[in-house]
């Protein structure tokens, strides 16, 4: 049984963490406040959408690598409830990221944004995206994803500072097997 995750999983974990945080920040604090009448918003959406599709693709790769490589045993805290919450949180991150990508694609298709961004479609952006149900879903998933990321970080802090079990080493590079 390995003591660390496969190097591909480690790389994808940290790359996706940075990308997802960047997209959450960009969507909530850079894109959201800009009025749809601003021509620069299309450029922002282009970057956001390319980033989202890239995250979706890398998440599929990550899931496949995760399913087909040997992994360390589940982390134990001494509490069955916390152990279950940790496992649920990890799978929840996969679920929410895929749902976020899916809702973004749905919003792009239903609003015509994808046509404008990727295919040089004509016409201005809709005056307000709130008319599209996928926008509400995308926003709710964003909040849930940020909350679950905070819970994930709280779990890391608990392992690092309370249990002091060095759990973070599992998600870094090095020899995968003890000994």
Reported CATH architecture: Up-down Bundle
Structural class: mainly alpha
CATH topology: Fumarate Reductase Cytochrome B subunit
Number of helices: 5
CATH class: Mainly Alpha
Order of helices and strands: HHHHH
What ranges have pLDDT less than 50 throughout 5 or more consecutive residues? none
Number of strands: 0
Number of domains: 1
The helicity comes to 55-70%
Q: Judging from the principal axes of the Cα atoms, what is the shape? A: elongated
Query: How would you state the average pLDDT, rounded?
Result: 94
Strand content: under 5%
End-to-end Cα distance, whole Å, is 12 Å
> How can the largest sheet be summarized?
none
Structure explained in plain terms:
By secondary structure, the protein is mostly helical. It has a single domain (7-171), classed as Fumarate Reductase Cytochrome B subunit (Up-down Bundle). Helices cover 69% and strands 0% of the residues. The chain is built from five helices and no strands. Helix 1 (7-31) runs antiparallel to helix 2 (40-68). The longest helix has 32 residues, at 80-111. The protein is elongated. The N and C termini lie close together (12 Å). The model has no long low-confidence stretch (mean pLDDT 94).
